[in-house]
């Protein structure tokens, strides 16, 4: 998603530098008109608004505050937009030294996936001081179709994102279970998909992920291990305040089982593979048809 967001900034006419430890991503970024930096610090030195688009809180801390991190090089009054999915307590802890350094901080997790990022159409769940959001607004508008202002409290954006991830993970797990159940009962997978997507049992995740199963295409748009992480964050934050999440717990176990089976880097729709004895669609069968 970071590459798509950076390309969207360039497309909007905003001078953009970027860093990624993956050299292929940096090459792709330069081909889209961006400037490849040698470190997070080099990006920070040039940025009025810095998007930190990484996997988790540990990576965000390293990129922003670690050796060669961006924050130490940033000009006072610049804005850090932290986009990783994190527990609210972790985001609040991350924000403190950044705010103390005289910078603005936006808790701004994102949703939409790589395709919407490339189109500049992600959703941003932003919380932070009004002046921070105002300064970052042109950059936010360049990458997002919707920017939700969730108030000044750091952590509010991350809490909303965890609700989204709860629903997304449960819906994917439910879609996989439903398809596995139907196929095991003799339903034609394609016909089952067509019926459900025009019926009350449909969901956005069912409609989006089941085609991956029908096409036997588990190239990761969002991987199984993303939901092991994100549902783990949801479940852990609820556990800390003794709040029961029975559906989340079950979905987390399903994704964890899939990861333990070696499917962690496959598309999250691969969670359907945990069900034994189910003849899933194959590309070979599709080609023969």
UniProtKB/TrEMBL annotation:
Q: Which residues form the 6-phosphogluconate dehydrogenase NADP-binding domain?
A: 1-148
Active-site residues?
161
Enzymatic reactions: L-threonate + NAD(+) = 2-dehydro-L-erythronate + NADH + H(+)
> What organism is listed for this UniProt entry?
Aureimonas ureilytica
Report the function annotation for this chain. Catalyzes oxidation of L-threonate to 2-oxo-tetronate. Can use either NAD(+) or NADP(+) as cosubstrate, with a preference for NAD(+).
Task: Cite a single GO MF annotation.
Answer: NAD binding
For this protein's source organism, the top of the classification is:
Bacteria, Pseudomonadati, Pseudomonadota, Alphaproteobacteria, Hyphomicrobiales
Protein name (record): L-threonate dehydrogenase
Is the Cell inner membrane keyword given for this protein? no
Under Pfam families, the record lists: NAD_binding_11, NAD_binding_2
What is the uppermost EC class here? oxidoreductase
* Statement: the UniProt record of this protein carries the keyword 4Fe-4S: no
Q: Which family does it belong to?
A: Belongs to the HIBADH-related family. L-threonate dehydrogenase subfamily.
EC numbers on record: 1.1.1.411
Say which domain of life the source belongs to.
Answer: Bacteria
3-hydroxyisobutyrate dehydrogenase-like NAD-binding domain residues: 155-274
- UniProt keywords, alphabetically: Carbohydrate metabolism, NAD, NADP, Oxidoreductase
Which SUPFAM superfamilies does this chain map to?
Answer: 6-phosphogluconate dehydrogenase C-terminal domain-like, NAD(P)-binding Rossmann-fold domains
